Every structure is written in structure tokens, then in C-alpha cells.
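Model it.
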Amino acid sequence: MDIITAMKERKSTRAFLELRVEEEKIHRILEAARWAPSGVNMQPWHVAVVSGSSKQRISEALIKARESGDQETPDYEYYPGQWFEPYKNRRKATGLALYGALNIRRENKHTRLEAWNNNYRFFGAPVGLLVFLDRRLGQGSWIDIGMFLQNIMLAAESEGLATCPQASLAEYPETVRRLLGIEEHLALVCGISLGYPDPTAPVNSYRTPREPVDTFTTWYD
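Modeled.
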């Protein structure tokens, strides 16, 4: 698969087959991703690969925290405190498309809650990647992490695997660090669900649109 095709075909997958992901494939993905650029070659990324019982423990702990009403304590603010246009409308459209694909009506609160909890279950993916960054580093290192994450997802695409990058898996970082024995100075950036996509799942049938180039580009002669 060429790189342009991989970039266009990659999408956030939210239903996976119950198939084991070969460890060799995961290693090849990380082997490729590590070539992402970073300022003065700091390579600031740290990855925890979870599967089996370790992934299950994390899922159960995150769901328990949510259902207990525990306050989210992310290591950074992913979304704005106050939404404004055009981002507010894009967010709304994405939510409508997602719940439309799941055939979940707004008034069905229990089903919506179960759908949300699937975030913490890694959407049924057999493997989860949890990506950390040393919080003592500067904002530039977050750019480096973004390029590293994209490399992971494109490499997974080339291996016939699907991914879903998830900020939701970083909502209770202290819980994740405690379960995995991760040091406090490592901030949890996000998780990535990784596995073979379920082609029959309705939730995998929709795609979010992208703005045309001229919407976000200004040309200067």
C-alpha cells in the first residue's frame, strides 16, 4: 500500500474481530513508527502495549471510575472549555454520524452509556497502545508525539490492521499509571485500539468528511 492510499483509507475503527494480532506485526509497526521526526532527535515517546488481562484490568478500572462519578483528571486539556464555530458544528456532526451509525437515539440513555463505555473497552480490539510523554518536556514534544502517532496508524494500515486513536483512554491517567507501574512524570497522551476491523459492524460503515484544501489554505505569491 502506498503512503497516499494509507493516509486516505485510514479511519477510526470502533468494532474489531476477535482475532489475535501477531506480536511480530506490532513490533514492525513500532519499528516503522520510531522513525518519526522529533526536535533534536529527542524521540520523546513511551509506549505500553496492553492485551489480555492487563487490558481487561484497565477497562474495568476506567468503567468503574466513570460509573462511580469520579472526576476526570487528564494530564492535559484536549478540548476547549468553550466550543465555538466552526469546531462546534463539526463536533456535533461527528456525534450525530456516530450515533446514527449505531442506531442509538438521544433519549436512549442506557444504550448511549454502553456505547461510551466501549471506549474504555478499546472497542473490543485485542491490543491497546498507551502512549506517554515526559511531562517535563516542552510543547514542541507534543508535535513530535503527533507525528509518531500518525506513523503508528499508517504502519498499522499497511499491515492490514485498523486503529482508533482515543483521548478517552487518557481521562483517568493516575489509574492507568497505577495499574501498569508507570512513573508519575510520564503524562498519558492517548490510547490506540489496534486489531483487525469487523467489516460487518455498522459503526465501521461511516466516514467523517474533511474540509476541501481551499478552506484551510491561503496562497501567497
